[in-house]
Design a protein that fits this description.
The structure is a single chain. The protein contains 23 helices and 16 strands. Strands 1-2-3-4-5 form a 5-stranded antiparallel beta sheet. Strands 13-12-14-15-16 form a 5-stranded mixed beta sheet. The chain has 5 domains: 2-64, Alpha-Beta Complex (DNA Primase, Chain A); 78-211, DNA primase DNAg catalytic core, N-terminal domain (Alpha-Beta Complex), CATH 3.90.980.10; 213-335, Dna Topoisomerase Vi A Subunit, Chain: A, domain 2 (3-Layer(aba) Sandwich), CATH 3.40.1360; 339-405, no CATH class; 427-558, Orthogonal Bundle (DNAb Helicase, Chain A), CATH 1.10.860.10. The protein is globular. The protein has helices at residues 42-50, 54-64, 77-98, 106-114, 119-124, 136-143, 148-153, 220-223, 237-245, 261-268, 282-295, 313-320, 322-330, 335-344, 352-367, 371-385, 389-426, 434-449, 454-457, 469-483, 499-511, 518-537, 546-558; strands at residues 2-4, 7-10, 22-25, 30-33, 39-41, 128-130, 157-162, 165-170, 175-181, 187-194, 202-204, 230-234, 251-253, 273-276, 301-304, 333-334. The two termini are 39 Å apart. The protein is α+β, with helices and mostly antiparallel strands and 559 residues long. The longest helix is centred in the last third of the chain and has 38 residues, at 389-426. α15 runs antiparallel to α16 (371-385) and α16 runs antiparallel to α17.
Length: 559
């Protein structure tokens, strides 16, 4: 965050962006993002960041400062249902783990003999077995007081309709079981693996009130305590368990999905560096590329481990042991080196065509690097391929300029879409008169940045000239303060404007930050608004039939 007047501005934690649009208002203990529209107070912020409901967020904040919440009759039904699911998951995890103690348990044989896990690892991870009985878990859970509806809500049971009859069966059966824990140690989901070659090989808990795919990281509750700034990200929980067995306790995994932005942000809160250790097959390499793109949106350092001698981390560990994996880990390539190796592929660099193809791809990679990195890797490529360093740097610079222009166009286009959608939600009439509304917002934004413009505008423009009700009301309040010689800085308007008006005022002000000739732009926007207003006054909407009105609406929206 950086200070901007009485505000703090920074990159939004809730959507991808490169230009700061996230504002914190210390005076009112609130925040607002002008890019995605997220906003609220400290409780709302924690709800978004930690994925908590309101009551849970209040409890977490009160515990942080040592406050005792009073008991009341607040109806927190959603929170209660979520807590009930967590309770059911915890009991189910106990049941699955106890099944390992049954004489001749196939699950115990799998974990101890096939996976060669020590009992302490089996216990620490709460590993278990779902027996070969359709209703074993249901019977156990019903005996513990859980209803079928609760088991269905937790995705521990499933409903089967056959004709006029309905049956209920365990969601997991005849599988070894891996409980998924969140950062607080709650069992939020399960993964199950078959013991033979039947399909599907893995099944996982579907989304519930307690679990959402793509949000949590497996084993982060363990790894965060030993990470020491570095986490190893692998594809599945079996790889994580194998790595922890061999002492690599900073290993974590995604949960049955490609790495998401939520997961990347979660990783960045507990590490400074992430080493990608995905499988060596084609699917694993594609997943690595996707993960690089997502992790590239964070401030994490990224390295990629190239598996040699095995198809996945577990295979390396079983075949060569922990020392081999440790050597691979220490020699892991950084993101740039990995991408250059991938670009090289099967190209024949001994012929001019192969060399040219490789350098074109390499230039695209270097274009995304820092200036120092470009210089270093351009020197390496020059020595390796006998091509001048200057030519490589020139090609990379050309690509970077082209990419920068495209990204800026895309960013502005996306930002305008977000702002337009948000403004239409605030004032639906803006969708009917988009040109006039944009001129109004530009006028108000410039006025907020240059209050002295009011003396030049007051003779020509009044709030009554504004077309959209929201902007007209905001203009009335701002013009009234200016008429009395009072300031209109958004951060000084608390109490005079509603929260929505204050947030919109700040957005309008920020949007006018880099205008080269503000007064010329102000005059142009005023003429545009007055022209639009004059054109609309020639149309008496009340005299139009439905088809004429719709035709006028389409023309105005298009124009």
């Amino acid at each position: 965050m950086r200070r901007s007047g009485r505000l703090l501005m920074g990159l939004c934690p809730f959507h991808n962006e490169k230009t700061p649009s996230f504002a914190v208002y210390p005076d009112s203990n609130s925040f607002y993002c002008f890019g995605c529209g997220a906003g609220g107070d400290g409780v709302a912020f924690l709800m978004r960041m930690e994925r908590l409901d309101y009551v849970e967020a209040v409890k977490a904040l009160s515990q942080r400062v040592g406050m005792q919440l009073p008991e009341d009759n607040y109806d927190d039904g959603l929170a209660k249902r979520r807590l009930r699911i967590l309770s059911a998951n915890r009991e189910a995890a106990r049941f699955y783990h106890e099944q390992l103690k049954v004489p001749g348990s196939p699950g115990l044989d799998y974990w101890l003999n096939q996976r060669k896990l020590p009992p302490q690892i089996v216990k620490s991870f709460g590993l278990g077995y779902a027996p070969d009985q359709f209703g074993a878990l249901i019977d156990h859970m019903r005996g513990k007081g859980y209803s079928l509806e609760e088991l269905l809500a937790a995705n521990l049971a499933r409903r089967i309709d056959k004709g006029e009859k309905t049956y209920y069966a365990d969601n997991f059966w005849k599988r070894v079981m891996v409980p998924i824990l969140d950062l607080r140690g709650n069992v939020i989901a399960f993964g199950g693996r078959v013991l033979d070659d039947s399909k599907p090989k893995y099944i996982n808990t579907s989304d519930t009130l307690a679990y959402k795919k793509g949000r949590d990281i497996y084993a982060l509750n363990f790894a965060k305590n030993t990470a020491n700034g570095r986490l190893i990200l692998v594809e599945g929980y079996m790889d994580v368990i194998a790595l922890h067995k061999h002492g690599f306790t900073q290993a974590v995994a995604c949960l049955g999905t490609a790495l998401t932005r939520d997961q990347a942000q979660l990783l960045s809160r507990y590490a400074e560096e992430v080493v990608l250790s995905y499988d060596a097959d084609e699917a694993g390499q594609k997943a690595t590329q996707r993960a690089l793109e997502v992790l590239g949106q964070t401030n994490l350092k990224i390295r990629v481990l190239k598996l040699s001698g095995g198809k996945d981390p577990d295979d390396i560990l079983q075949t060569y042991g922990a020392e081999k994996y440790r050597q691979l880990l220490e020699g892991a390539a950084n993101e740039i080196e990995f991408q250059l190796l991938a670009a090289r592929g099967d190209l024949d660099l001994s012929v001019p065509a192969g060399k040219a193809d490789y350098l074109r791809e390499a230039a695209k990679i270097l274009a995304r690097c820092s200036q120092i990195e470009r210089d270093i890797y351009a020197s390496r490529l020059s020595d390796e391929l006998q091509v001048s360093k200057e030519a490589i740097l020139a090609q990379a610079t050309q690509v970077r300029r082209k990419d920068d222009r495209k990204q800026e166009r895309d960013r502005q286009r996306e930002l305008m879409k977000l702002q337009d959608a948000q403004s239409v939600r605030i004032d639906p009439r803006r969708g009917l008169y988009p040109a006039a509304a944009k001129a109004e917002e530009r006028l108000l934004g410039l006025l907020l940045r240059h209050p002295d413009f009011y003396l030049k505008l007051r003779e020509t423009l009044s709030p009554g000239d504004f077309v959209t009700p929201f902007n007209r009301e905001l203009a009335e309040k701002l013009f009234a303060r200016l008429e009395l010689g009072q300031g209109i800085e958004p951060e000084l308007l608390t109490g005079h404007l509603s929260e929505t008006e204050q947030n919109e005022a700040m957005r309008m002000k920020v949007s006018c930050e880099n205008i080269a000739n503000p007064w010329q732009e102000c005059e142009g926007s005023m003429q545009k608004l007055l022209g639009e207003r004059e054109g609309m006054e020639k149309i008496n909407v009340n005299e139009l039939d439905e088809n004429e009105y719709l035709e006028m609406f389409a023309k105005l929206k298009k124009g």
